# Entry
Amino acid sequence: MTARPQILDLFAGPGGWSEGLRVLGLQDIGIEIDSAVCATRTAAGHSTVCANVAEYPTAPLHGNVTGLIASPPCQSFSAAGLRAGNTDLPLCHQALDDLARGHDSRHTLLAGCADPRSLLVVEPLRYALDLRPEWIALEEVPAVLPLFEHTARLLTVAGYSTWAGVLNAADFGLAQTRRRAFLIASRTRPAMPPEPTHADGGTDPDLFGEGLPPWRTMGDVLGWPPGEVITRGNHTTGGSRFPTTGPSWAITGRARSWMLRVGNRPSSTRRRLDQPAPTLLFAKALNDVSWIDADGTPIRRLSVAEASVLQGFTASYPWAGSRTKQFQQIGNAVPTPLATAVLRSLVPVRVEVSA
# Structure
């Protein structure tokens, strides 16, 4: 870490927050323990310290951190996991209170946790109280909202303006109805949630503005325009139909009938191409995020490039590691458009540059 004030990103992941900062002409230094994720960040040009957030000392950082970002691992609380974190909630609440009193009980409480990752959710408060950054932005699965609300109350006592709630990424231009809990806090300005840029079905113009455009769809971002398609190949059998515009990796075939299915049960979520994707969950079910036809016939798996774009990254983002590892990184990342919206509401930005 340099002596110049920095934006510190805990559990930095592959770069969702970092890409959001880049849009605003800013950059962070991330702390990340996963070697494949560190490789992705390095390839994408994001500064990274490969280390364990829970063991990293805060003393050398005093006076050098102006902004704090954190997305603690969500597996212990996620609906896609075993939710052992729900059992550990009382211990997490106790750890938060103890930290606010100046007592670090993390190591003692860890022995009683059903999932040792649960207590990672309290790390942002430890860093915040030790470093007193000007602003803070935290993200997690919605189940963590009670812990974020608790953290917000403690930060309010410490002199921060705070807001905690759930945001839908589709309201901020992502072609995915991904809902996540956020906590934003500031010592220099009122903490307010970001203003949506899109709405379900769009909104009509009124005296206060032009209205909001509708949610973006998978077809919008994957190169499947609502207009005409052309047919190539054997015209007797129909050949293959391709969109007249769009990148070469985009949806092809009889795409108008395609749906994206997340899960392999009869009740699995399915979305048409003219809708946003559902929340992308890859964890242990890589094969379960697939394109199917309208009658349920499997077509193929979702590709890395498609998943990347649906999460708000570019199709060519340099994901490192095995194919499974790449999908896990994508599914765990903060979507770039949502990160940008949250950060813009917190960070004083004078000049913006393109992503």
User: Anything to note?
Assistant: The chain has two domains: 6-200+333-344, 218-331. The CA atoms of residues 23 and 355 lie 5 Å apart. The radius of gyration is 21 Å. The chain has ten helices and 13 strands.
